[in-house]
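User: I'm curious what two different proteins look like when written out as structure tokens. Can you demonstrate?

Assistant: Sure. I'll show them one after the other, since each token string lines up with its own sequence. Here's the first protein:
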Amino acid sequence: MPPLHWLRPFGAGRTFLSTPVIGILAVGSVAAAPLGSGLHRPGSQPVASVAPVASGVVNGRVVDAKSAPLPGVTVVVEGTTLGATTNEDGVFSIPNVPAGQHTLVYSSVGFTTARVSVTVLDGKPVQAPLTTLGENAQALSEAVVVGYGTQRRQDVTGSITTIDSKQFVKGQVTNPEQLVQGKVAGVQITTAGGAPGAGSQIIIRGGSSLSASNSPLFVIDGVPVTNDGLAGAGNPLSLINPNDIESITVLKDASATAIYGVRASNGVIIVTTKKGLAGEAVRVNVSTQHSIATVAKYVPVLTGDQFRDLVLNYGNYQQQALLGTENTDWQRAIYRPAYTTDNNASVLGALGKVPFRASVGYLSQQGLLKRNDLNRYTGNLSLTPVLLDGNLRVEMNVKGSWIDNNFSDQSAVGTAVGFDPSQPITSDDPRYAPFGGYYEFLQGNGQLVNLSARNPLSLINQRRDRSTVKRSLGNVRLDYKLPFVPGLSANLNVGYDVQRGSGTVYVAPSSASQYNRQGINNEYRQELNNYLLEAYAKYEGRVLGQRLELLGGYSFQKFGNTNYIFDDRRADGSVYTPLTPTYDNQTQYTNNLVLLSYYSRLNYNVADKYLFTGTFR
């Protein structure tokens, strides 16, 4: 049973109105439960039964060094799923503990873990030895990534979870969100589809809107990025190489997200990429992963023979006349084994006083649906020098990616389930020559049946939907500690996020799906531009003997979205539907949005006992 740490308000055994905890004393006792239910009473009718295993109830109480009751301490019977959490009086009770020797494990956020041996005897209570949990100073002083900087874990009042690279999901991971899938309480991540680069829906603590977006705000190395869809990109986050990510921090509640304003109403996900370390020798890492995926289970449908028997026994003459002679498994015809290879190389270390990390990656991922694949090329460079006797910290990040996508016609998936299994994939019958030889449902005059389903293989093989997506994301951050004012620092962050997506959709004129309009030959193009300028000052020190952190800053962010308009064309390039120009006769339109903000945050810690956080934006 995992530790029930979420029942501990504000962590480390501290609440807003409680006494600070230096240690924990654990006093427990064990009393065996009566075992009369399995005994045979004289004169009663004997029945076949199995005698229950002897068990007892472990009761105890946990207090701090000052004998005050301590709530929220997790007590677990090691090696079992049995456990409990202390209540407001510091009392816990664990029922149904099997008789025998056991180890109780006491744990609490901010404290070292203690292990106490107890023996459960039939009908004989056992007093657990006195146990003290010492404060874990390292855990309390650990720096936690928050909006605009870091804080000591013990000073954090909001709900924040950080997953580092050691805790990431292992195996074949191609998108950043897959790294923390199932790792963060209150975060639901569902994949939109099985296609390579398919997007994921991320919801933190449930959806807040029925009609608007429930997606969280993403911040990558200090740059808030848009999660808007880009033409030709199935998932904007797939442009980031998961192998370059050091940690992912999730800000869940209002206290943690308020610094980012209303756009963080659905939570914030902060992505921190890997950096070089000062004094570290140059090191080269190379990795390659290969995997294969297959369809786990097909939808059960009738075979050609079964379908023929059904129609011959229960169908009318017209239906029987349409039957074919084949046994076609349409689902297996459109799917394939999907191969994936992920190759990465990185160099990190320090050149003099300049820590650096550079990496390149190549991902080739096939989809289970034929003619569906993705090829991604990524590059990343980071420099993190410390100058001016340690007073100036510089962080420079540049990321680039190039993705080539091939998209399949997704409608083939549903069509394959319901298409006639007695018909062939292709036919030499001259009636099907206009459709590339693919079998289609035809009328008596050789014309297509307009409302019928189309050949699943024809939908895939006679369509070519390709896109190219490019993205560059970078920033420069300067953090300067003013030597003449201890605790005062100034931070400047300049960043950009530029995305380009373009592609073509070609459907052959022989394709039954677009036969009446003589095919499709269309193109699309979109550009997204995001520019950032932020500056803030931060003071950390003591005021009236208590810890104070005060932050105030300014943010300017400009978003641009340009869509290009093209004629609707047939497969041969001739215009099918003329371009409808905008009101000013332009073939593109651009939406610009500027977000101008002022923000501040105050954290006040009184005697490591009372915490206050106030945020304004």
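Here's a second, unrelated protein for contrast:
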Amino acid sequence: MAAVTSIRSAETVAEAPGGVVERSGQRRIRQQARAERDVTQVAGDMHVYPPPVPGRSVEWPVWVGSVPRLAAAFQPRTTMRMRASEAQSEGSEVVLSGVGGVGKSQLAGSLARDIRDLERSEGTGLDVLVWTRADDPDQIITAYAEAAEQLRLPGVSQDDSTAAAREFLKWLAATERRWLVVLDDITDPAQVEEWWPDSGAANGWVLATTRRDDAQLSGRGRTLIRLGLYTPEEARAYLHRRLADAGHPHLHNADQADELAAELGHLPLALSHAAAYLINKRRTMTDYLTLLRDTDSRLGDLLPPSADTEGYGRPVAASLLISLEAVEEADTTRLARPLLHLASLMDPLGHPARLWTTPPALEHLRTTRPPQRRRLRRHRPAVTEAEIHSALECLRTYALTTQDTYTAPVRMHALTARAVRETIPSHALPATAHAAAEAIRSLWPALDHQDRELSATLRANTVHLDQHTHPALWRPTTHLCIRLVSSSLREAGLYRQAIEYDEGTVQRSNEIHGPDHPDTLNARHDLTNSYSGAGRIQDALDLRERVLADRERLLGNDHPNTLDARHNLANSYRDAGRIQDALDLAEQVLADHE
């Protein structure tokens, strides 16, 4: 290994081996070293690396690791690229953050290729490019050690990768050569911190990707760029080009492409698998949408490994849930997984975080939280609000959920939610569904106008909960939340939507309970109210007559529900102009209450 000559740049003398002071030739050595770029300078000391022995010269440029190939029909993500380029020009390192499958590595690969190819074309040259996975420090160390070996750094031994990696970091901090290091898929920022290169000089840049959203990632002057889903335009362009480039433009339908993108939540990874599925199976978008909307279909069938044409290496479900193991290790409350199960049943657009601090939710989480020790299995301590907030923060940190502020709605990508739901044991789903429904019921305002936004959010979440768990909320009886949606729609003046909802409720109740079940009669009663509110007087009157007859037959003349049906029919007679019929029935109602 070549010896290192040390030149102290702060003095006018230089020490040769053996301690002999040399003054002559200093400038010549320094100039020659700089010209050959075999010099590093740290803390005032200039280290000159003499040329390596013959046959061991560095072959420039030095590439370590493989930059991912650009996916078919790659979308440039122009806005995010511009932000990254601006940060680079300002000397800031960039961290691309986002949930699994949004294309972080693809964008990083595109940026790395642009820098490499542009500089080579301009003749300036990128001397060193290192691309390494960063989910394990050992992979970073291995890549850095390989770079140190290719650079022929003095003191580097193949027997000590860690020492070699540290020498590479020192070289990066001091060299005048141009370099780029990409840390792909950081899972633990704390473990990566000591292996993060110093890119303070203008000749080096660090680009990283991660699912995490920690404050640590934006420290030290780094720019954190949150990479989101495809825009509708990007999703549309991707599907059109992907199918056309594969020679199957006939499989593309513009309107259905928008529907397909929406069903997949505009997730790039899912769209890639879906397009490959269409190509491989020669299926139309109509066929695929039918399969996708079937709640019994599993992601592994809809987005199979055989559709991984871009070499992502993981099934979609596994990619979406890869952070779950890390979450459970970091979650000191042991509530993250049961909370994730509950959240996966909610509306992807958001649900109130305070749902999970309601008494029904706290009790469910108390009974489903894994015990810390076997001997404590019988003793399950109460769950506190602080523990709920801690678990939610853990889920946010690992990008399984998103939440703009502490009190903002909690959101989960639709495909992530679907992947989570597939992990819920079938025997546990009914109890989980009922716990979520009870939490919603307990949060519902007594009067909708007291908090219209909350009421609208709870309506949407009840509908999603029912869709994902059907028929859990209908057995043994129909949960009150189902009826609360109906009354809430009417209070909001959304009569057309109320009628559509109630007609569906009547149909499902007929199928599950039968036409004479009290819950079915209640559903028909709600539909009459929606007809009346919408001004469909005759429809309301006809149905109310049938509801009254059925309640008298099944419940008796004096049952409270029968009296209520009689009162409503009197109102319908009045609305229809049948005043005498209305008066007669009203008198009967009054007599019944005496």
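A detail about the second structure: The CA atoms of residues 320 and 530 lie 41 Å apart.
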